[in-house]
Automatic annotation (TrEMBL):
InterPro entries: Beta-lactam/transpept-like, Peptidase_S11, Peptidase_S11_N. The lineage of its organism: Bacteria, Bacillati, Actinomycetota, Actinomycetes, Kitasatosporales. One of its GO terms (molecular function) is carboxypeptidase activity. The keyword Hydrolase applies. Gene3D superfamilies: DD-peptidase/beta-lactamase superfamily (3.40.710.10). It comes from Streptomyces pakalii. Keywords: Carboxypeptidase, Cell shape, Cell wall biogenesis/degradation, Hydrolase, Peptidoglycan synthesis, Protease, Signal. This is D-alanyl-D-alanine carboxypeptidase.
Length: 299
Protein backbone atom coordinates (compact mmCIF):
# COMPACT_ATOMS: atom_id res chain seq x y z
CA UNK A 1 0.00 0.00 0.00
CA UNK A 2 2.80 2.41 0.88
CA UNK A 3 4.47 1.73 -2.48
CA UNK A 4 1.21 2.51 -4.29
CA UNK A 5 0.78 5.78 -2.45
CA UNK A 6 4.34 6.85 -3.29
CA UNK A 7 3.73 5.97 -6.93
CA UNK A 8 0.52 8.01 -7.04
CA UNK A 9 2.31 11.02 -5.49
CA UNK A 10 5.09 10.83 -8.05
CA UNK A 11 2.60 10.73 -10.89
CA UNK A 12 0.68 13.64 -9.38
CA UNK A 13 3.88 15.71 -8.96
CA UNK A 14 4.99 14.91 -12.52
CA UNK A 15 1.60 15.88 -13.89
CA UNK A 16 1.63 19.12 -11.90
CA UNK A 17 5.14 20.01 -13.13
CA UNK A 18 4.14 19.23 -16.72
CA UNK A 19 0.98 21.30 -16.47
CA UNK A 20 2.83 24.20 -14.82
CA UNK A 21 5.55 24.13 -17.48
CA UNK A 22 2.89 24.08 -20.18
CA UNK A 23 1.12 27.02 -18.61
CA UNK A 24 4.39 28.98 -18.43
CA UNK A 25 5.13 28.24 -22.09
CA UNK A 26 1.61 29.18 -23.13
CA UNK A 27 1.74 32.35 -21.01
CA UNK A 28 5.08 33.32 -22.49
CA UNK A 29 3.84 32.76 -26.05
CA UNK A 30 0.76 34.87 -25.26
CA UNK A 31 2.91 37.65 -23.77
CA UNK A 32 5.20 37.82 -26.79
CA UNK A 33 2.16 37.89 -29.11
CA UNK A 34 0.68 40.76 -27.07
CA UNK A 35 3.98 42.65 -27.17
CA UNK A 36 4.28 42.16 -30.91
CA UNK A 37 0.73 43.45 -31.58
CA UNK A 38 0.65 47.04 -32.87
CA UNK A 39 -1.89 49.26 -31.07
CA UNK A 40 -4.73 50.41 -33.34
CA UNK A 41 -4.22 53.87 -34.86
CA UNK A 42 -6.35 56.50 -33.11
CA UNK A 43 -9.39 58.06 -34.75
CA UNK A 44 -9.23 61.83 -34.45
CA UNK A 45 -11.85 64.52 -35.03
CA UNK A 46 -9.37 67.00 -36.57
CA UNK A 47 -9.20 67.08 -40.36
CA UNK A 48 -5.40 66.88 -40.28
CA UNK A 49 -2.88 65.32 -37.94
CA UNK A 50 0.76 64.32 -37.73
CA UNK A 51 2.92 62.79 -35.01
CA UNK A 52 6.61 61.92 -34.95
CA UNK A 53 9.31 60.68 -32.62
CA UNK A 54 11.26 63.88 -31.99
CA UNK A 55 14.47 62.00 -31.27
CA UNK A 56 14.56 59.90 -34.45
CA UNK A 57 12.29 61.89 -36.76
CA UNK A 58 10.28 58.72 -37.42
CA UNK A 59 6.66 59.28 -38.46
CA UNK A 60 4.24 57.70 -35.98
CA UNK A 61 0.82 58.86 -37.22
CA UNK A 62 -0.62 60.76 -40.18
CA UNK A 63 -4.01 62.02 -41.29
CA UNK A 64 -4.01 64.33 -44.32
CA UNK A 65 -0.60 65.40 -43.00
CA UNK A 66 0.39 67.33 -46.12
CA UNK A 67 -2.88 69.14 -46.83
CA UNK A 68 -2.48 72.91 -46.54
CA UNK A 69 -4.72 74.49 -43.93
CA UNK A 70 -5.10 77.72 -41.97
CA UNK A 71 -3.02 77.56 -38.80
CA UNK A 72 -4.43 80.23 -36.50
CA UNK A 73 -2.11 81.21 -33.66
CA UNK A 74 0.11 78.14 -34.08
CA UNK A 75 1.76 80.57 -36.54
CA UNK A 76 3.32 82.20 -33.46
CA UNK A 77 5.70 79.26 -33.07
CA UNK A 78 7.47 80.59 -36.17
CA UNK A 79 7.26 84.15 -34.81
CA UNK A 80 9.14 83.02 -31.68
CA UNK A 81 11.59 80.92 -33.71
CA UNK A 82 12.53 83.90 -35.90
CA UNK A 83 13.12 86.09 -32.83
CA UNK A 84 15.24 83.45 -31.07
CA UNK A 85 17.21 82.77 -34.27
CA UNK A 86 18.49 86.36 -34.44
CA UNK A 87 22.23 86.58 -33.95
CA UNK A 88 23.11 87.50 -30.36
CA UNK A 89 19.47 88.13 -29.48
CA UNK A 90 19.20 90.08 -26.22
CA UNK A 91 16.20 88.84 -24.23
CA UNK A 92 16.60 91.76 -21.79
CA UNK A 93 16.33 94.38 -24.50
CA UNK A 94 13.30 96.59 -23.81
CA UNK A 95 10.49 97.35 -26.26
CA UNK A 96 8.17 100.32 -25.72
CA UNK A 97 4.56 99.31 -26.31
CA UNK A 98 3.01 101.42 -29.08
CA UNK A 99 -0.62 102.47 -29.56
CA UNK A 100 -0.55 100.72 -32.94
CA UNK A 101 -0.28 97.34 -31.18
CA UNK A 102 -3.37 97.87 -29.04
CA UNK A 103 -5.30 99.43 -31.95
CA UNK A 104 -4.48 96.31 -33.98
CA UNK A 105 -5.94 93.83 -31.48
CA UNK A 106 -9.07 95.95 -31.11
CA UNK A 107 -9.58 96.18 -34.88
CA UNK A 108 -9.02 92.44 -35.35
CA UNK A 109 -10.82 91.35 -32.15
CA UNK A 110 -7.62 89.39 -31.55
CA UNK A 111 -6.27 87.48 -28.55
CA UNK A 112 -4.25 89.78 -26.34
CA UNK A 113 -1.45 89.86 -23.76
CA UNK A 114 -3.13 93.09 -22.52
CA UNK A 115 0.04 95.11 -23.09
CA UNK A 116 -0.30 98.74 -22.00
CA UNK A 117 0.81 101.62 -24.23
CA UNK A 118 4.00 103.25 -22.97
CA UNK A 119 5.14 100.27 -20.88
CA UNK A 120 8.64 98.99 -21.49
CA UNK A 121 8.59 95.21 -21.84
CA UNK A 122 11.62 93.00 -22.46
CA UNK A 123 11.93 90.71 -25.48
CA UNK A 124 11.91 87.73 -23.11
CA UNK A 125 8.68 88.93 -21.50
CA UNK A 126 7.11 89.49 -24.92
CA UNK A 127 7.82 85.83 -25.74
CA UNK A 128 5.76 84.82 -22.69
CA UNK A 129 3.01 87.23 -23.76
CA UNK A 130 3.16 85.74 -27.26
CA UNK A 131 3.07 82.06 -26.35
CA UNK A 132 0.97 81.82 -23.14
CA UNK A 133 -2.10 84.07 -23.65
CA UNK A 134 -1.37 84.08 -27.42
CA UNK A 135 -0.99 87.85 -27.52
CA UNK A 136 -1.28 89.28 -31.02
CA UNK A 137 -0.12 92.59 -29.53
CA UNK A 138 3.08 90.84 -28.36
CA UNK A 139 3.51 89.33 -31.85
CA UNK A 140 3.17 92.79 -33.41
CA UNK A 141 5.70 94.25 -30.96
CA UNK A 142 8.23 91.52 -31.79
CA UNK A 143 7.73 91.89 -35.56
CA UNK A 144 8.21 95.66 -35.23
CA UNK A 145 11.35 95.15 -33.12
CA UNK A 146 13.04 92.49 -35.25
CA UNK A 147 12.02 93.51 -38.75
CA UNK A 148 14.16 95.92 -40.80
CA UNK A 149 13.04 99.19 -42.31
CA UNK A 150 12.35 102.87 -41.65
CA UNK A 151 8.58 102.45 -41.19
CA UNK A 152 6.53 100.07 -39.05
CA UNK A 153 4.89 98.61 -42.16
CA UNK A 154 8.29 97.94 -43.72
CA UNK A 155 9.57 96.29 -40.54
CA UNK A 156 6.52 94.03 -40.30
CA UNK A 157 6.86 93.04 -43.96
CA UNK A 158 10.56 92.32 -43.38
CA UNK A 159 9.78 90.17 -40.34
CA UNK A 160 7.20 88.11 -42.24
CA UNK A 161 9.85 87.69 -44.94
CA UNK A 162 12.15 86.20 -42.28
CA UNK A 163 9.38 83.79 -41.28
CA UNK A 164 9.12 82.58 -44.88
CA UNK A 165 12.91 82.39 -45.27
CA UNK A 166 13.09 80.21 -42.15
CA UNK A 167 10.37 77.93 -43.55
CA UNK A 168 12.38 77.65 -46.77
CA UNK A 169 15.58 76.84 -44.84
CA UNK A 170 13.68 74.00 -43.14
CA UNK A 171 12.70 72.74 -46.64
CA UNK A 172 8.99 73.18 -45.96
CA UNK A 173 7.16 73.24 -49.29
CA UNK A 174 3.60 73.56 -47.95
CA UNK A 175 4.03 76.52 -45.62
CA UNK A 176 3.59 80.23 -46.23
CA UNK A 177 3.09 83.14 -43.86
CA UNK A 178 1.46 86.47 -44.61
CA UNK A 179 1.13 87.53 -40.96
CA UNK A 180 3.13 87.56 -37.74
CA UNK A 181 0.28 86.06 -35.68
CA UNK A 182 -1.91 83.86 -37.91
CA UNK A 183 -4.53 86.49 -38.67
CA UNK A 184 -3.69 86.24 -42.34
CA UNK A 185 -5.00 87.69 -45.57
CA UNK A 186 -5.78 84.37 -47.21
CA UNK A 187 -2.20 83.26 -47.76
CA UNK A 188 -1.21 82.05 -44.30
CA UNK A 189 -1.08 78.27 -44.31
CA UNK A 190 0.88 75.20 -43.31
CA UNK A 191 0.32 71.47 -42.80
CA UNK A 192 0.41 69.17 -39.76
CA UNK A 193 3.76 67.77 -40.92
CA UNK A 194 5.34 71.17 -41.59
CA UNK A 195 4.12 72.73 -38.33
CA UNK A 196 5.49 69.77 -36.40
CA UNK A 197 8.88 70.31 -38.04
CA UNK A 198 8.80 74.02 -37.15
CA UNK A 199 7.96 73.15 -33.55
CA UNK A 200 10.67 70.50 -33.42
CA UNK A 201 13.21 73.10 -34.54
CA UNK A 202 11.93 75.65 -31.99
CA UNK A 203 11.99 73.10 -29.14
CA UNK A 204 15.75 72.76 -29.62
CA UNK A 205 16.05 76.28 -28.17
CA UNK A 206 16.17 76.24 -24.37
CA UNK A 207 14.41 79.62 -24.00
CA UNK A 208 11.55 78.46 -26.20
CA UNK A 209 11.23 75.20 -24.25
CA UNK A 210 11.11 77.07 -20.95
CA UNK A 211 8.43 79.46 -22.18
CA UNK A 212 6.05 76.92 -23.75
CA UNK A 213 6.05 74.53 -20.80
CA UNK A 214 5.13 77.37 -18.37
CA UNK A 215 1.53 77.12 -17.13
CA UNK A 216 1.39 80.68 -15.81
CA UNK A 217 3.73 83.55 -15.08
CA UNK A 218 3.81 86.98 -13.45
CA UNK A 219 6.19 89.45 -15.11
CA UNK A 220 7.34 92.80 -13.71
CA UNK A 221 7.35 95.47 -16.43
CA UNK A 222 8.35 99.14 -16.37
CA UNK A 223 5.57 101.71 -16.79
CA UNK A 224 5.68 104.91 -18.84
CA UNK A 225 6.22 106.96 -15.67
CA UNK A 226 9.19 104.83 -14.56
CA UNK A 227 7.31 102.77 -12.01
CA UNK A 228 6.37 99.15 -12.49
CA UNK A 229 3.41 96.81 -12.78
CA UNK A 230 2.96 93.03 -12.90
CA UNK A 231 1.54 91.29 -15.93
CA UNK A 232 -0.03 87.88 -15.28
CA UNK A 233 -0.35 85.41 -18.13
CA UNK A 234 -1.85 81.91 -18.21
CA UNK A 235 -1.07 79.33 -20.89
CA UNK A 236 -3.97 78.42 -23.19
CA UNK A 237 -2.51 74.92 -23.64
CA UNK A 238 -4.67 72.66 -21.46
CA UNK A 239 -2.31 69.69 -21.90
CA UNK A 240 0.11 71.23 -19.40
CA UNK A 241 -0.73 69.71 -16.05
CA UNK A 242 -3.37 67.37 -17.47
CA UNK A 243 -1.20 65.08 -19.61
CA UNK A 244 1.79 63.36 -18.01
CA UNK A 245 5.05 64.57 -19.55
CA UNK A 246 3.50 67.41 -21.61
CA UNK A 247 6.09 70.06 -22.52
CA UNK A 248 4.19 72.40 -24.89
CA UNK A 249 3.65 73.75 -27.48
CA UNK A 250 0.91 76.12 -28.82
CA UNK A 251 -2.81 76.43 -29.36
CA UNK A 252 -4.48 78.10 -32.30
CA UNK A 253 -7.97 78.99 -33.48
CA UNK A 254 -9.81 81.09 -36.01
CA UNK A 255 -12.86 81.24 -38.28
CA UNK A 256 -11.12 79.16 -40.98
CA UNK A 257 -8.51 77.39 -38.84
CA UNK A 258 -11.19 76.20 -36.35
CA UNK A 259 -9.24 74.63 -33.44
CA UNK A 260 -5.55 73.71 -33.77
CA UNK A 261 -2.87 72.43 -31.43
CA UNK A 262 0.83 71.74 -31.70
CA UNK A 263 1.89 69.51 -28.83
CA UNK A 264 4.83 67.61 -27.34
CA UNK A 265 5.48 65.32 -24.40
CA UNK A 266 8.37 63.31 -22.98
CA UNK A 267 8.12 60.01 -21.11
CA UNK A 268 10.99 57.74 -20.10
CA UNK A 269 13.39 59.60 -22.38
CA UNK A 270 11.13 59.40 -25.46
CA UNK A 271 9.71 62.61 -26.90
CA UNK A 272 6.76 62.71 -29.28
CA UNK A 273 5.72 65.89 -31.07
CA UNK A 274 2.78 66.56 -33.34
CA UNK A 275 0.01 68.74 -34.67
CA UNK A 276 -3.75 68.66 -35.16
CA UNK A 277 -5.37 71.17 -37.51
CA UNK A 278 -9.05 72.02 -38.04
CA UNK A 279 -10.56 70.25 -35.05
CA UNK A 280 -14.09 71.11 -33.99
CA UNK A 281 -13.64 72.40 -30.43
CA UNK A 282 -11.07 73.11 -27.72
CA UNK A 283 -12.00 69.86 -25.99
CA UNK A 284 -11.68 67.82 -29.18
CA UNK A 285 -8.30 69.22 -30.17
CA UNK A 286 -6.97 68.32 -26.71
CA UNK A 287 -8.55 64.85 -26.84
CA UNK A 288 -7.10 64.31 -30.35
CA UNK A 289 -3.62 65.22 -29.13
CA UNK A 290 -3.86 62.90 -26.11
CA UNK A 291 -4.99 59.97 -28.27
CA UNK A 292 -2.13 60.54 -30.70
CA UNK A 293 0.50 60.82 -27.96
CA UNK A 294 -0.81 57.73 -26.15
CA UNK A 295 -0.48 55.88 -29.45
CA UNK A 296 3.00 57.30 -30.09
CA UNK A 297 4.32 56.22 -26.71
CA UNK A 298 3.09 52.65 -27.30
CA UNK A 299 4.77 52.33 -30.71
Amino acid sequence: MKIGIKHINRVSVTATVTLTAGAVLAGSAFASTAQAATPPAPKIVAKGGFLMNDGTGKTLFTKSADTRRATGSTTKIMTALVVLSQKNVNLNSKVTIQKAYSDYIVSKNASSARLIVGDKVTVGQLLYGLMLPSGCDAAYALADKFGSGSTRAARVKSFIGKMNSTAKSLKLKNTRFDSFDGIGNGSNYSTPRDLTKIASKAMKNSTFRTVVKTKSTKQKVTTKSGGYRYMSWTNTNKLLGSYSGATGVKTGSGPTAKYCLVFAATRKGKTVIGTVLTSTSEANRTADAKKMMDYGFKK
